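Researcher: Sequence recovery benchmark, item below. Answer with residues only.
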């Protein structure tokens, strides 16, 4: 469970860092891209503006017109089209444009459009009036496209490197954060286990003594019988609590070092559920409830037989206890997706409140209505089930509504080799 907490911290932190990093890179790329576009626009406008020199300035920080800054310092090819004769005159700038590309630009500019792009040749053009007719300015987008591509590649490379370094740092940080929790958890689990073991002996003695007294009730005054029987009942309850605490302690320990506590044997989950259902079907009938099963056969999982069997029986036992008389308990075992076994138990009863659903797996939690003390137990069964399933790489969830009833759903990864 602590490993899940550590992984969750890692995922949340790295997701936030990735969001900030890529957001920053996106803003940087957008600003740079806008500067490149402005660079191209200024270069084209410089040529179309007949009041400024058509060639770029060298050796000055700004062009004569303050609006045309150094962004306009780029070689541009242009042609002048005479309005009277239609004659086309190509400029003698240092840049050269091929005849096919030039012809496509002239054809495109012959219409009403004042600017456009020739994708095949990577050319942006813009036209404007001059005293003798029209001028068409052209600039290549190959360099700017290459700059954009290089920026994207460099940004991704930098982002990957930064995230890799950050992931190592965050992982070490998560270990430091989780370590005190781990120590506290181990201490709590050890205390629960030790205390439970210490309580087992005196409880066994108490129960043995009360059984002896029960065997000799005839020699004890009738008024004192109830005290002996009450003592035995409470000792039984205490013994159940001690056993539950031991199971919970074992599940807690498995959450820290699962392989050392729970086995990972190849199990037929379907056979395990079917066997448990046979037992609880009889119990449900005795309590006036019906039992409906829909079990997919031969679902194989890697798990601990005793631990998984205990969890399945906890869910079935709860369903039988709290279902309304005359209602049907629905048990379903199926495959979810490609690699997950889903076991659900649904019963009809007074629906749980949202607060109950949020805390149903908390230790010693009991709602006043559906989980009253009259049913017995101490509110540890579902806590044991939840902790056990987390240690077995599975999970349990709860949903409850007046329309659908209360459903507990157990999920467990299928064995890859058998599925």
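Model:
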């Amino acid at each position: 469970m602590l490993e899940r907490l550590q992984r969750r911290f890692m995922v949340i932190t790295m997701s936030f860092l990735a969001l900030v990093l890529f957001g920053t890179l996106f803003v940087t790329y957008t600003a740079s891209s806008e500067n490149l576009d402005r660079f191209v626009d200024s270069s084209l406008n410089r040529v179309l503006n007949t009041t400024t020199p058509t060639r770029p300035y060298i050796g000055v920080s700004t062009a004569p017109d303050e609006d045309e800054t150094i962004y306009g310092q780029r070689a541009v090819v242009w042609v002048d089209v005479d309005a009277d004769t239609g004659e086309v005159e190509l400029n003698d700038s240092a840049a050269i444009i091929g005849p096919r590309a030039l012809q496509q630009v002239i054809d495109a500019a012959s219409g009403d459009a004042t600017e456009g792009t020739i994708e095949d040749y990577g050319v942006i053009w813009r036209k404007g009036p001059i005293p003798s007719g029209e001028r068409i300015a052209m600039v290549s987008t190959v360099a700017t496209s290459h700059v954009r591509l290089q920026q994207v590649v460099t940004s991704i490379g930098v982002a990957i490197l930064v995230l890799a370094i950050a992931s190592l740092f965050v992982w070490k940080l998560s270990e430091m954060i989780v370590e005190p929790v781990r120590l506290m958890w181990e201490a709590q689990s050890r205390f629960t286990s030790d205390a439970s073991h210490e309580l087992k002996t005196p409880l066994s003695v108490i129960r043995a003594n009360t059984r002896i007294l029960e065997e000799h009730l005839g020699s004890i005054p009738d008024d004192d019988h109830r005290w002996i029987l009450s003592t035995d009942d409470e000792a039984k309850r205490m013994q159940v609590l001690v056993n539950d605490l031991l199971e919970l302690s074992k599940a807690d320990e498995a959450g820290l070092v699962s392989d050392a506590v729970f086995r990972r044997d190849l199990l037929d989950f379907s056979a395990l559920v079917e066997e448990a259902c046979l037992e609880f079907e009889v119990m449900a009938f005795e309590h006036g409830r019906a039992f409906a099963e829909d079990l997919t056969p031969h679902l194989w999982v890697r798990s601990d037989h005793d631990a998984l069997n205990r969890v399945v029986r906890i869910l079935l036992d709860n369903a039988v206890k709290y279902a309304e008389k005359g209602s049907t308990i629905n048990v379903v075992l199926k495959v979810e997706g490609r690699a997950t076994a889903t076991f659900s138990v649904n019963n009809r009863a007074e629906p749980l409140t949202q607060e109950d659903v949020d805390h149903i797996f908390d230790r010693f939690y009991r709602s006043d209505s559906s989980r009253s003390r009259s049913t017995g137990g101490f509110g540890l069964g579902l806590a044991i089930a939840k902790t056990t399933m987390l240690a077995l790489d599975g999970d349990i969830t709860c949903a409850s509504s007046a329309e659908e009833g209360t459903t507990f759903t157990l999920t467990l990864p299928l064995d890859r080799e058998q599925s």
